[in-house]
Amino acid sequence: MTMMRARSLVSVVVAASLAVGGLSGCRSQPAVAVYIGQSGHITEHHVQQIWDETSELVTSAAAGQAARMPIARVDIVGLLLTNELYDRVAKQQKVTLPATMPYAEVAEQIGLPDSAELTRIYTQNLVLRQNLLQSVSAAAAEPSDEDLRGVYQQFADNQAINLDFAGFKKSLQAADKKELQGAFTLRDEVESLVGELDVEISPRYEDVVLGIYSYTDQASGRSFPIVSVPFGDPDAKPLVVDVA
């Protein structure tokens, strides 16, 4: 089995950098969505600003027809957290964004203007992830069986494989292993940073899983993360529900 490459662009914002699931935090200031160290918080005000702008754009584009938000507040929280963590890892790795960014291309993919803050954050996350993966892959070692078993389990849980672990491992080509080890290395970098910064999600939101590397089924178009950084209990129920 040859592993399919992760898509650099996706057609919906919800499939972006994070899948969201409740973290019982010790800190619960009403104005804070995510605690990052002592001062680098993601505020509810910022989340609301992006929500309001996106809602206005979606409503305007609907031209009087019924409009439905393509994202929830927790998706916005996830995108902002991803951006913060990738930006910090990029500085450590001396990785920068290119002078020309594909904002227009991504805007067309997700159906929002290229000037929308959501478009710009989403695009930055995609490009930073791609550049970080390229950077860490250069020195990546052979992936461990433990890490590969984690990937295999994601395929099994999503009913996307009919091989046992031995068969799965044997099916991986050298390029697959190199890409996966790059993803494992980036995951470790992000996990280390999360610990250093004492990142904590407000209990108003669900559990957040930072998807480092995803698999896309060509037949169905369905994607799911196979290498990720989880926060909290993935089976927890949301404390904030969006109705749109």
From TrEMBL:
Domain of life: Bacteria
PROSITE patterns with a match to the protein in the record: PROKAR_LIPOPROTEIN
Protein name per UniProt: SurA-like protein
